[in-house]
Amino acid sequence: MPDTATIAEPTTLSYAMAVNAALRRALAERGDTILFGEDVALPGGVHGVTRRLRTEFGERVFDTPISESAILGGAIGAALMGRRPIVEIMWADFTFVAFDQLINQAANVRYVSQGRLHAPLTVRTQQGATPGSCAQHSQSVEALFAHIPGLRVCLPATPQDAYDLTLAAIGCDDPVIVIESRALYHSMKGPVTFGTEWPTIGGARTARPGTDITVVTWGATLHTALAAAEALHEEGLEAEVVDLRWLNPLDDRTVLESVARTGRLAVVHDANLTGGFGAEITSRVAENGIPLLAPPVRVGTNDLRIPAAPSLQGAAIPNAATVAERLMKACTAGSLS
Amino acid sequence: MPDTATIAEPTTLSYAMAVNAALRRALAERGDTILFGEDVALPGGVHGVTRRLRTEFGERVFDTPISESAILGGAIGAALMGRRPIVEIMWADFTFVAFDQLINQAANVRYVSQGRLHAPLTVRTQQGATPGSCAQHSQSVEALFAHIPGLRVCLPATPQDAYDLTLAAIGCDDPVIVIESRALYHSMKGPVTFGTEWPTIGGARTARPGTDITVVTWGATLHTALAAAEALHEEGLEAEVVDLRWLNPLDDRTVLESVARTGRLAVVHDANLTGGFGAEITSRVAENGIPLLAPPVRVGTNDLRIPAAPSLQGAAIPNAATVAERLMKACTAGSLS
Amino acid sequence: MHESDLNQYLNELTSMWRIRHFEEHVAQLRADNLIAGSVHLCNGQEAIYVGTCAALDLRRDAVFPTYRGHGWAIACGTPLDALFAELLGRAGGVNGGRGGSAYLSAPDHGLYGENSIVGAGAPIAAGAALAATFDGSGRITVAAFGEGAMNQGSVHEALNFAAVYQLPVLFIVENNRYSELTPIASMVRSDRLYSRASGYGMRGVRIDGNDIDTVRETAIQAAAHTRSGGGPVLIEAMTQRLVGHYFGDAQLYRPDGEVEQAREDEPIARLTRLLAARGVAQAELDAIRDAAHQEVAEAAKRALAAPLADPSTIEEHMYA
Amino acid sequence: MHESDLNQYLNELTSMWRIRHFEEHVAQLRADNLIAGSVHLCNGQEAIYVGTCAALDLRRDAVFPTYRGHGWAIACGTPLDALFAELLGRAGGVNGGRGGSAYLSAPDHGLYGENSIVGAGAPIAAGAALAATFDGSGRITVAAFGEGAMNQGSVHEALNFAAVYQLPVLFIVENNRYSELTPIASMVRSDRLYSRASGYGMRGVRIDGNDIDTVRETAIQAAAHTRSGGGPVLIEAMTQRLVGHYFGDAQLYRPDGEVEQAREDEPIARLTRLLAARGVAQAELDAIRDAAHQEVAEAAKRALAAPLADPSTIEEHMYA
Ligand SMILES: Cc1ncc(C[n+]2csc(CCOP(=O)(O)OP(=O)(O)O)c2C)c(N)n1
Ligand SMILES: Cc1ncc(C[n+]2csc(CCOP(=O)(O)OP(=O)(O)O)c2C)c(N)n1
Ligand SMILES: [Mg+2]
Ligand SMILES: [Mg+2]
């Protein structure tokens, strides 16, 4: 692999290898980084995301016991002492065995110490359902993290963002949860420009411009939303698709500005609806008094556990067709008053 | 204490003793109940909520090691086998050391087994900030539970509800999280009618009727909202205060019906705003297309960690004065379009 | 050899073959993309399941394995059709396809559920044992998990919880040396995991988990001990998997020759050698293997012909 | 007695008195409602803090105690004014009043933070020790927690994590027999908690935590051992609290005579008796006590006169 830091021409990488390139750059350029987690070092990660890093960076990259509290607590302690740990929690569903270390520990460090201490750790994890994945390996749980003040949260949806957001997370002086997409790791390839600047956190991206409705989404669901927008286009409707990328910090200005133009709002996510982050987006638009031509729409999984069978998963989780149908209805729905 | 089950005249009880009366009745009438947790048996609970139950019910009430995963997992296992466990997690903040047992375990039992198994357990906990309570003992975290399909969630705000909702939770054949209020345990006394029926889950309550704005709230914040409504009343404005009581099942009909009448909506909670359950309420009203005279308002804690010093806590968390001010503004704000 | 002993061995051989063939069929179905997602096979660990279940009364006892639980399910007597159907996402699966390979249950057969969160089943099994101290059932429970799970907080809490109340639960550590792709030796400083038991005031033993006699006799003793109120027992059963952690694992982390050696030491080969040495005809041994194979193949065929889980049912059974 | 030994003892007596008087002042301030909320006092456990800190170099070492951490803070050298101010919710508190009694930190003095989640500080302390294996600092860390915390999953994970990487961390179990209102004997089957260490392949010892000599010498040895790469050490220091779990605890759960006996065995009384027996004049011992008292009283007075934390600052320091 070429020296990632000095290349300006885009390279085509899978989502997984884009994360790998970011980790490699961080380990190479920042001597304070260390990387650990279950199966991340010698095996190179169960999804291959961390491969070759152990070979290249030696003991700064190491495997751990199956002890998520020790992994996260260990990262916090090392961060307090000036390291910049990058840890992997293999599935977002597994964060719950050690949630305390994120909510009650990492999130409190800076505020409670009045900034005397800080905990610049990056927690990489991944989420979502894939055919056959069981109910304990399928949840989309970003809303839980996004409700915790003190934690930065992002969900890259493209190889470029997998690269940029990972670096931004590592560079951030606060704890950041990077929620990757298992479904995209090897299925999605795309151009990645490495750049020379170190990316910083925050900022939504308008993934597709449009005039008829604003569709807010994040993470792997972006691709569902884009496919639905394409279907709308064939019906003569132009959806503007906003990829939030970061739930914290939240770039609600991009959303508000877009909705003010289109007059319609839909939020699409894989997570279940009640208490999902879609509610936050809908609320921000409402409380800012942005006039809407029709009620806002949230598309997500109904409030269900996730079944393993592909036929059931397919019916539970939004797909391009069901999203397109909902968007179409939203575009043609009557005025509010 | 009199035999609680047969008395129709209201008795005056503290919030804590109302919970105690419900637990006592459940243990007396349902032989399948067992009750355990840290310090709940011989000491009668660190807040005295479970006092005398060990004496009365013997080994069905017992103290545990400081092992929240074992407590919750133990309750699930016992529930699978036909017991009806009632466990205490001393502070809601501590659920995070064992969150997996609620999210990935209890919540999945019925759905994944197609109803062949079920886990009728009740998790009692309490939350909120009280003067001096530290950042790890002060959070209001109901939104996290309310985002998990499979978990029922309630927050009693009065002694009567402390009694009724606790019984309803215990009687429910699914896992229920009862989030009590530490601040109310001994400070709030009120009439409790024991009744003869066993209460069932669900249902909001209109705690104060009004015509000018609908104020949706739950848990201890109800009293903040009622005090604010009283202040509004002195200004000639009538707020209708809806106490949700249950976030799951969510009685959104009562909310929608009220907002349709008042044309204005405010949600008030102690939890921090972003991703709080206020967003869900605001979204339900918006997506149902209920016409509003002014944008909806969410009042909560800004997205902060909770400081211990009373002077700081007072500034961070909504109180009657700050809520009244926000409600007043909401009542006088101009029309949406 | 007594006739009853011989029969027992032959039954055990049948059971182990049933599991082995099941797993081999699953591997093929997964390779053919008829099963979707991760599958964790237990080839080589069969003696643990068959030997332990000999000590259980599955009308009242309850077993809590992990994602690597097909062998437990079969040893408990779960019908093969319904198991295949579950993995194949069919309506007739033990959980109608909702559980899948890694999170299925069959409580009618004492299988109270696989668990795909490492360590999470241990406190649940302890709780099921706790229920037995109230309901007069005489139930004991089994919490089974891998050696890697011994470093998970919930297992620690479960062990102490069971010890303090002397709960009737057996903790079976299936020590197959690896946790996913990482050897246990790099995750603990002392690899005598059974020795942790004494710190909780609990019995702990390490046994040869590939020897059906040892597993069965240890389990019978331990079950009697715990059923009679003697408290929990931790059994560290040494074994090896003959396959990868999950289907598709290239196993680059395993030293040369390890799997070959494991094939010599695996429980079916060992029991087969023992029976041959004691005079059982090769033809009889082959017939047992082949009958199990046929039973499994037919079950798979029936499951494949059954209808997929019906998407219109997804809203059912969320709440009481 | 050598003069240097004598001086050391006298300094230790001063330090222990400083802690004791601090806690007694806190109790009074809490009783007067000048301090709000729960306070957890460490009266009777002072030798653990003073003895352990003798083994530390607080310019680089890091201590992670619990909510019962005032004694550690003082033994680390945190200024009393800023500690009182923190408990009193003053702007000049070590954390400007944000941490409070149960969750304060003073990293300038090696106090990387109390923790009010039982057991949660242990993996963090292990992580701080992990950093030392990369940064060349020679740092060791101390994770201190009560005996009840030994049943928490995170402590188990931290112990194994530290053992497997041979991290430079001391785990100090302050065994004061009770966890809140429940005796340890009812939460474990084997109460020899230090014996759990061997299961992790780690050194574990139980010591008399009320004997300043024993604590200091054990800590010095253990610190040298772990600092030189010998791996973590678990020290179970037996002690008793002279007061309730938190302020206001009526301690009905303690058997008659237990607290009276504890007053005989507590470390200040013991060191005072030892020094008196070795010929130190009662007047000198009294003077030490009184000087510490005065130092503490004056600090409290200054803190009480300082301004409260300023509500207009609450939005500061949420993020970088
Ligand atoms: C809490 C949690 N952490 C990590 C994982 C990912 N994971 C699945 S299996 C496994 C290895 C378990 O090893 P072991 O306990 O030895 O059991 P084996 O798979 O060898 O049977 C890991 C780390 C998980 N499922 N749950
Ligand atoms: C995870 C968690 N569970 C429960 C509590 C409540 N709690 C606070 S202190 C305490 C007792 C701890 O006992 P021990 O570890 O012996 O320490 P000691 O208080 O005696 O110093 C408990 C249960 C908590 N703070 N955190
Ligand atoms: Mg293993
Ligand atoms: Mg204690």
TrEMBL record, chains A, B:
- Which InterPro entries does this one have? THDP-binding (IPR029061), Transketo_C/PFOR_II (IPR009014), Transketolase-like_Pyr-bd (IPR005475), Transketolase_C (IPR033248)
From the UniProt annotation, give the residues forming the signal peptide. Answer: none
Task: Give the Gene3D superfamilies listed for this entry.
Answer: 3.40.50.920, 3.40.50.970
Entry keyword Oxidoreductase: yes
**Protein's UniProt keywords contain Transit peptide:** no
Cofactor(s) needed for function: thiamine diphosphate
Keyword tags: Oxidoreductase, Thiamine pyrophosphate
Taxonomy, superkingdom: Bacteria
Q: Where is the Transketolase-like pyrimidine-binding domain?
A: 13-187
Q: What is this protein called?
A: Alpha-ketoacid dehydrogenase subunit beta
Q: Which organism is it from?
A: Yinghuangia aomiensis
From TrEMBL, chains C, D:
**Membrane spanning residue stretches:** none
Under the heading InterPro entries, the entry gives:
DH_E1, PDH_E1_Alpha_Subunit, THDP-binding
Q: Domain named Dehydrogenase E1 component: which ranges?
A: 16-311
Q: Which cofactor does it need?
A: thiamine diphosphate
The organism encoding this protein is Yinghuangia aomiensis
Protein name from the UniProt record? Dehydrogenase E1 component domain-containing protein
Q: One Pfam family name from the record?
A: E1_dh
CDD domains (UniProt xref): TPP_E1_PDC_ADC_BCADC
Keywords of the record: Oxidoreductase, Thiamine pyrophosphate
